[in-house]
Amino acid sequence: MKAPSPKTPHVLAQLSPNGTPQLSVWRTRIENSDAQALWRALHRLVSVHPLVRSALGSQQASAQPTPLFSLHDLTQDLYVLLLQKGRFAHYLSAQMADNEIEREIFQIELTNLLIGNLRRRRPENYRIVRRVSQLLETDPRFRRFPKNKGLRGQQPARYRQAAEAVFGLREWSNEKRVKDAGTFSDLITNIPMRRRNCRRTGCTGDAQLIVSNQELVELLLEIFAAIDSPAPLRVLRQLALSKLPVYDPVINPIEDEVNEEQHGRTYHDVFASTDASPEQLALRGEEEEHARQAAAAFLDHLGMLMRANVQRTERLWRVLWHCYFDPAEPSQLEIAEMVGISDSSVSDYRRKLEAEMRKLDFAPEQLRCFAEELDEQLRWRLSLPERPTLREEFSVPVPWPQYEYNTWKSLDAAPVV
Predict the structure, then answer these.
(1) Does residue 196 contact residue 245 with C-beta atoms inside 8 Å?
(2) How far apart are CA 411 and CA 417, in angstroms?
(3) 193: number of CA atoms within 13 Å, CB side?
(4) CB atoms within 10 A of CB 32
């Protein structure tokens, strides 16, 4: 592993008692299993990481009642991650020097942890930021501008952070003046917001496209035309995001709002309603009506299976009612005695019923309506007593099914028709 470049400022050093910088003694702390010293060293790395400092600045600027993260939480996550991956043991077995250990933790392990958290917490924002950076780097209509000259004025100096790289239109000269970025938000006011492209994308198909690459390039061209100046990548990302419908909701506990109201503050956050929309209510009514109509058709179909034999059809209906709707929940022997058939005949009828019910394709909500209507139809056709009104008043669900057959599991997971 190469040593750090002498041109890069060493942000990982700490001061010794005599005032001279020195690296943390990582190997000694790992060999001695000094957990507290390791935790303090990791906390120092977390506190100086540029991604953490940027996130803390944004968090303080937004003045959120509940912080999304803290330095102690990130340090603990990093410490647990290194233990789970066995990195401390690897550092010792690989005989890595202290500066190599610190550089790997700072540049690889901590950076990957922070980027992973960002991708999980704000996935759409992260995707758009990456796409903006990629298009500015690869599209021939844009190019990188030298922020300052090197010692000989021939090559641009390296940026400490990639977000500080300056981009502009390719036809602009290197002498084009970089304006104050504080005025850019006012200059792009007339650029319209882009409509969200809801087409599904990705290998899993669970993410929306938001905006195509061509539309994103056109947006960047409009931004450059409006500001008429090269701009850092960090600023261009913010300008592009302000014109795109990116949805990354932040969940705030209701307790925070209650506490703020008690202190005289009120917030106008909009909570999504859990009530169904009129369209959903109409669709639900149609699905329930379809399920109820299917109950009568199902009983008629059972009669066709019995070749329109009235006696056999009535026996099949009675087996269906006693197995799944009879509140007394009789056993199979009792059902055979009540219907007047043998125990094997009850099993045969039940297999036929299960075979037909496997063909049903109902959602759980539709299956409930189907079962209720089937119960009513059987009581009417078999001249059985009506259901007690108490069950209707308290909306007690119909016992469907009473026997835990494997066939019903497939019905519960059936998709909506």
Answers:
(1) yes
(2) 12
(3) 9
(4) 11
* Tokens encoding 401: 């099914």
Could you give the CA distance from residue 301 to residue 41 in angstroms, rounded to a whole number?
75
Can you list the alpha helix ranges (DSSP code H) found in 199-277? 213-227, 233-241, 254-262
Q: Where are the alpha helices (DSSP H) in 86-178?
A: 87-93, 98-104, 110-121, 123-138
- CA dist 299 and 146 (Å) reads 80
Q: Residue 210: which H helix or E strand, with range?
A: strand 207-210
- From first to last of its 417 residues, the chain has per-residue pLDDT tens of 343 443 333 444 444 444 444 445 899 999 999 999 999 999 999 999 888 887 777 666 555 555 566 889 999 999 999 999 999 999 999 999 999 999 999 999 999 998 888 788 888 888 898 999 999 999 999 999 986 543 344 444 444 567 789 999 999 998 999 999 889 999 999 999 998 888 877 666 667 888 899 999 999 999 999 999 999 998 999 999 999 988 776 665 555 555 554 455 544 444 555 667 777 788 888 888 888 888 888 888 888 888 888 888 888 888 888 888 888 888 888 888 888 888 888 888 888 888 888 888 777 778 888 888 888 888 888 888 776 653 444 444 444 444 444 444 444 444 443
Domain residues of the chain, as ranges? 14-121, 125-241, 283-412
Q: Report d(CA 10, CA 7) in Å as an integer.
A: 9
Query: Can you read off the two tokens belonging to residue 417?
Result: 């028709």
